[in-house]
């Protein structure tokens, strides 16, 4: 079974963004081979790249000088001198990861290969505004770094996932339904006052999609990641890559409006519209309905705990939520024909009741051809999927070959 706290398997792999391709055999591509194959010898790199031994040697020397690779420990019982091996220098710094939902954020400090060094969870309302939210996150990272004997200068990159529409190029949230004050707030500028490193900003469901695809379903070319928590969102993998849509808005399944005749007047959604899937079946909506039924719940966590006790009202509401979610999901399945639908998020902890309702709607409403081989499965990494995806996206950016080439060139002249 996959250890959800071991994210080192998330690296490396094909990037989830399109980058310029450098000339074959440049330092960046040699580093990509070292990262993807673990410890490698000079001869193995010569075989895989087709470059001369002298050229590979020069690339390795340049990467060592830039602090990106180091000599691997040699363990051999055979006679003769074993060949030198090289590995990615994963201990050369740290990554800061913040995977946020509407009411809380999971924080992690990892090494450069994605292994989690420390993690914690912080209760923090995303609607408190960007300045307060970011300051709280930065403040929480400080003690974690200190405990590990690290400082801000050791941070090589920051990955941040947020529950709203994200312009990943600009690193901003755009017109979010629930994130008061976040619209086009300069997140990177705020963090630059504390850390001199690249910052990757991603939608929360997209981050989960990347993490689940890379670690649990790497050979699947088409996948839909459904996040069911306080809100509802989706991340799409198409052709093996993250699909964002024209403006980064793909996957906003929670705000698809549906008509449920037996439900009467459509409920009001937090986005201002009526009848959104999220207004019927999001975690906040389930809490609303439980409270209306007299249950003393105040959070999605409380609702999930109540469901776990077998409470009939909570169980009925969750199965109903699954059927309504399945209405929107069935349309997505017919339209996109994914091989796998992965379901994660806080509500997915009650999968026995939730999945039954979802499957009921999907298999009743979707095209038979689209469901012939469809798998609907829980997230393999549970609540670490978003952290894993952020590590992957961040390292794809940090170690993109042309970026590595520039770093090596700068190191050579310094």
Automatic annotation (TrEMBL):
Note the InterPro entries from the entry. Answer: ATPase_NBD, ROK, ROK_cs, WH-like_DNA-bd_sf, WH_DNA-bd_sf
Spell out the Pro residues composition-biased ranges.
12-25
Ranges for the region named Disordered are 1-27
Q: Which Pfam families match?
A: HTH_24, ROK
* Keywords, alphabetical: Kinase, Transferase
Q: Where are the transmembrane segments?
A: none
Residue ranges that the Swiss-Prot or TrEMBL entry lists as coiled coil = none
Q: Name one GO molecular function term.
A: kinase activity
The record's comment on protein family reads: Belongs to the ROK (NagC/XylR) family.
Could you tell me what this protein is called? Putative NBD/HSP70 family sugar kinase
From which organism does this entry originate? Answer: Humibacillus xanthopallidus
State the organism's lineage. Answer: Bacteria, Bacillati, Actinomycetota, Actinomycetes, Micrococcales
């Amino acid at each position: 079974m996959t250890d959800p706290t071991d994210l080192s398997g998330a690296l490396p792999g094909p990037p989830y963004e399109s980058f310029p391709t450098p000339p074959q055999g440049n330092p960046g591509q040699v580093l990509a081979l070292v990262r993807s194959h673990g410890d490698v010898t000079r001869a193995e790199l010569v075989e895989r790249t087709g470059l001369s031994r002298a050229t590979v040697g020069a690339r390795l020397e340049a990467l060592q000088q830039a602090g990106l690779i180091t000599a691997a420990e040699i363990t051999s019982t055979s006679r003769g001198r074993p060949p030198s091996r090289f590995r990615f220098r994963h201990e050369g710094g740290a990554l800061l990861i913040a995977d946020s939902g509407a009411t809380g954020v999971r924080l992690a400090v990892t090494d450069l290969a994605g292994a989690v060094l420390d993690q914690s969870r912080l209760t923090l309302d995303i609607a408190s505004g960007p300045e307060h939210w970011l300051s709280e996150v930065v403040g929480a990272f400080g003690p974690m770094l200190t405990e590990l004997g690290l400082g801000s200068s050791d941070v090589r990159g920051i990955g941040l996932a947020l529950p709203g529409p994200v312009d990943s190029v600009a690193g901003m949230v755009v017109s979010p339904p629930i994130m008061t004050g976040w619209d086009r707030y300069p997140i990177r500028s705020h963090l630059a006052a504390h850390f001199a490193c690249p910052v990757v900003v991603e939608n929360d469901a997209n981050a989960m999609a990347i993490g689940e695809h890379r670690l649990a379903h790497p050979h699947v070319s088409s996948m839909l990641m459904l996040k069911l928590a306080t809100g509802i969102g989706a991340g799409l993998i198409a052709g093996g890559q993250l699909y964002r849509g024209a403006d980064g808005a793909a996957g906003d399944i929670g705000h698809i409006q549906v008509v449920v005749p037996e439900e009467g007047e459509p409920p009001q959604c937090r986005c201002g519209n009526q009848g959104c899937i999220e207004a019927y079946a999001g975690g906040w909506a389930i809490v609303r309905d439980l409270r209306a039924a007299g249950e003393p719940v105040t959070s999605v966590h409380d609702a999930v705990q109540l469901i776990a006790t077998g409470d009939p009202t909570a169980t009925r509401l969750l199965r109903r939520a699954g059927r309504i979610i399945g209405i929107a999901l069935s349309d997505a399945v017919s339209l996109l024909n994914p091989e796998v639908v992965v379901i994660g998020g806080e509500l997915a902890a009650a999968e026995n009741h939730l999945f039954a309702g979802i499957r009921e709607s999907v298999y009743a409403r979707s095209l038979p051809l689209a469901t012939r081989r469809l798998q609907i499965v829980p997230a393999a990494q549970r609540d670490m999927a978003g952290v894993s995806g952020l590590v992957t996206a961040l390292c794809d950016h940090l170690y993109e070959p042309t970026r590595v080439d520039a770093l090596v060139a700068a190191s050579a002249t310094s």
